[in-house]
What does this fold into?
Amino acid sequence: MTNWLRSILPREEKFFPLFDAHAEHIARGAAQLQAILANPGESAPFDQLERTIAEGDKLNRQVLERLRASFVVPFDRADIKEMTVAMQAALKAMMGAATARRSPRLDGAASLLPPFGERIVALGDNVRQAIPLLEALDRNTEQLHQICQRIGDGYAALVEQRDAAMMQLFDGGSDPVAMLAAVRLLERVTMVAERLDGVADRIDDLVLDYV
It folds into this structure.
């Protein structure tokens, strides 16, 4: 759809509150994952993360149901679907990391984990800041670009941190089973960051397509 035609059509605004709520759940889930990485023995953060993901699933379904029922949508239907799917994929990746952290073999690697939790929280907060700006996309282009750049930089920094942590594990001569468990966890945490970077990619695509 051309920009001039999009500008004269009525806008369907009811998707934006769902996007905003989904972004809030991402930030909440990131904080819950950070708590699990720091103290996997506590059941409350794990239970809270499960609820957060379940609520995210409901938001995802609501977006898809409204997408099928709406004639006027704020963006192309494929873009809306990709955005909500990307956000929910990030939430579900958090559960994968949380489950991997509960392995009893990880006690020796616990000291490596706090910086990863901090980075995931920062990425989640960036997503929470970016999503509400989509409602006035044309006015928020530069701010969205800056936030997406921060997310990309944060993801790249986490990958470097993961590689350094893996080298530390290998050099430390850990028990092979414990080392495999730690590597698996680091890969799952990296997947969370990758999924959050994927949300930023969807935002960048919207900026390119609609501004």
Remarks:
- The chain has seven helices and no strands.
- The mean pLDDT is 88.
- Residues 176-210 form the longest helix (35 residues).
- The radius of gyration is 19 Å.
